[in-house]
TrEMBL record, chain A:
Alphabetically ordered keywords of this record: ATP synthesis, Cell membrane, CF(0), Hydrogen ion transport, Ion transport, Membrane, Signal, Transmembrane, Transmembrane helix, Transport
Source organism per UniProt: Flavobacterium xinjiangense
HAMAP family for this protein: ATP_synth_a_bact
Cellular localisation: Cell membrane; Membrane
Name of the protein described by the UniProt record: ATP synthase subunit a
Keyword Cytoplasm (UniProt): no
Membrane topology reported for the UniProt record: Multi-pass membrane protein
UniProt function note: Key component of the proton channel; it plays a direct role in the translocation of protons across the membrane.
Coiled-coil regions listed: none
Gene it is expressed from: atpB
UniProtKB/TrEMBL annotation, chain B:
Protein localization: Cell membrane; Endomembrane system
CDD domains: ATP-synt_Fo_b
Entry keyword annotation includes Secreted: no
Gene: atpF
Membrane topology: Single-pass membrane protein
GO molecular function: proton-transporting ATP synthase activity, rotational mechanism; proton-transporting ATPase activity, rotational mechanism
Name the UniProt record assigns to this protein: ATP synthase subunit b
């Protein structure tokens, strides 16, 4: 009887890992399934413009994934193609185009209609999900070379799906962590309630990320940013794995804004020593210093750029791969192939959970590293 | 690259930065600062508690050592006292013995002196008696001699014979 507890652990781990997948897979399945069933039918609602809705399963799945990873102006949980119905809710559209235009995204009828506001006509382009100014019939002309529409784009401050997700994540974070903060006073310095789960994580960020990378002396002023960015990225990564089809951290604009904040904080709080290392590297010959300066200067921009691309690419690719494999089920339509791709998507989902945590950690870790280099004290002489 | 740049959405960027920066400040005020302060306080408290426990332990140890020391001292003192007492006893006994001896010797001396004195007195008395007796004898003899010469001689001889017998 030398049975270790490994099998039991494995089963538990599998069950736990299964939970998000179960909730994840269903809605997607519904959507794609509906599409599959009507694959042979000709789409009754024709679409204006040169691009008709794809009709075969492969292109449909591709289009579905393509739309999923983009932002959208309404929140659709799933849609029924036979009846042309979308289950979800509309979001407010706020456009600045020589004056403020506010209307509900229901006016677009999921990209199929031209919305009119104060005498201007707008339409959502089917490819990038963005709002373009059009004429009354909704013509979108495309550039021959690049394929991008040449129509004028108004500045779009709409509460899109992504903005709504950010708001929900922020609200959730605020409730959880304000609750955690309050529970200390209530419970004589010991955390209680939901936030308690996150207390070790907060401590981990302080003790393993902030203090080792920034140093005991300066870490305090960066703590708020590091904690906020870690939980923000983590929450939105996890949101992306939940069954509403949200893709926030796989959006370049979001990762750009996070990276630019790290960039700004790094360079605005940097001390003399940091700039000295960039423009006049100590400890190397003078000629080398001149060569090193532009490289180091470029490094300032490359660092946040890598942050931006890393998070974006990881989450974006994760969503695409996972959805493609789920889509494979409907392409195979056989018990063997579909089961295999189900198993594969299951394994990938587990991987994606890991990636969700890992990317949040890496973003925070590297931000802390850059802050650390910005406030590093003048003690490198002995090292050289 | 074009596709990436085309993905950038100014409105979304503005929303994101607004919400995120707002979130940082809100959380800083309502969450991170109280949380980190509370955690720091708690850690400080734990550190202090450990330190005071350590101190208490040390104090306890000191106290125990003190106790041990005092006990040791007391034991030593008791031993010393016992030793002193024993010595004193022995000394007293010895002293008493000496005293007794001296006293005894003195008494013996005195007794001897007394005996000598008595003896001398007795001898003197005896001498006095003997001389008186001798005188009286001599008187008697003289008286007898004066009356009878023979008898006189006889008496002297007899008396001398008595003396010899003595």
């Amino acid at each position: 009887m030398v049975i270790s507890n490994k099998p039991l652990r494995f089963i538990i781990a599998t069950l736990v890992a299964c939970l998000p997948l179960i909730s994840f897979a269903n809605p997607e399945q519904d959507t794609v399934k509906v599409q599959t069933e009507v694959a042979h039918q000709a789409t009754e609602e024709g679409h204006e413009g040169a691009h008709a809705e794809p009709t075969d399963v492969k292109s449909k799945i591709k289009a579905f994934i393509g739309h999923h990873v983009l932002d959208s102006h309404d929140f659709t949980f799933f849609s029924d193609e036979v009846e042309g119905k979308h289950y979800g809710f509309s979001l407010p559209v706020i456009i600045w185009d020589n004056g403020l235009h506010v209307f509900s995204s229901a006016k677009f009828e999921h990209g199929e209609a031209v919305a009119e506001s104060n005498g201007n006509y707008y339409k959502i382009n089917h490819h990038d999900g963005k709002i373009y100014k059009t004429d009354a019939s909704g013509t979108i002309t495309e550039d021959e070379k690049t394929g991008f529409p040449t129509n004028v784009r108004p500045i779009d401050f709409s509460i899109t799906k992504t903005v709504l997700s950010i708001m929900i994540a922020s609200l959730l974070m605020f409730l959880i962590f304000a609750g955690l903060a309050k529970s200390y006073a209530k419970n004589k310095g010991i955390a209680s309630g939901v936030g308690r789960i996150f207390e070790p994580v907060v401590l981990y960020i302080r003790d393993e990320i902030a203090i080792p990378n920034i140093g005991e002396k300066h870490y305090k002023k960066y703590m708020s940013y590091l904690l906020t960015i870690f939980f923000f990225v983590l929450f939105l990564n996890i949101f992306g794995l939940m069954p509403f089809g949200i893709n926030v951290t796989g959006n370049l604009t979001i990762t750009f804004s996070l990276a630019i904040l790290t960039f700004l904080i790094t360079n605005l709080t940097a001390n003399k020593n940091y700039w000295g290392h960039i423009f006049w590297m100590p400890g190397v010959p003078k000629a080398m210093r001149i060569v090193l300066a532009p490289i180091e200067l470029l490094g300032i921009f490359i660092k946040p750029f890598s942050l931006m691309i890393r998070l974006y690419a990881n989450i974006f690719a994760g969503h695409i791969v996972l959805m493609s494999i789920i889509g494979l089920m409907f392409i195979f339509k056989s018990w063997l192939g579909s089961t295999l791709s189900f198993g594969l998507s299951f394994v990938l989902s587990i991987l994606e959970i890991l990636v969700a945590f890992l990317q949040a950690y890496i973003f925070t870790m590297l931000s802390a590293l850059y802050f650390g280099s910005a406030v590093e004290e003048h003690h490198h002489e002995e090292a050289h | 690259m074009d596709k990436l740049i085309n993905q950038f959405e100014l409105g979304l960027f503005v929303w994101q930065v607004l919400i995120f920066v707002g979130l940082i400040f809100l959380l800083k005020k309502f969450a991170w600062k109280p949380i980190l302060d509370a955690v720091n306080d708690r850690e400080e408290g734990i550190k202090n508690a450990l330190l005071s426990a350590e101190n208490a332990r040390k104090e306890m140890q000191n106290l125990q050592a003190d106790n041990q020391r005092i006990l040791q001292e007391a034991r030593l003192e008791r031993d010393n006292m016992l030793k002193d007492a024993r010595e004193m006893k022995e000394k007293m006994v010895a002293d008493a013995k000496n005293e007794a001896q001296v006293q005894g010797l003195k008494m013996i001396e005195q007794a001897k002196a007394a005996i000598e004195g008595e003896k001398n007195a007795a001898m003197a008395e005896l001498k006095l008696q003997v001389s008186t007796l001798s005188l009286s004898i001599a008187e008697k003899l003289l008286k007898d001699e004066l009356s009878n010469k023979e008898a006189q001689t006889k008496l002297v001889e007899k008396m001398l014979g008595d003396v010899k017998l003595n």
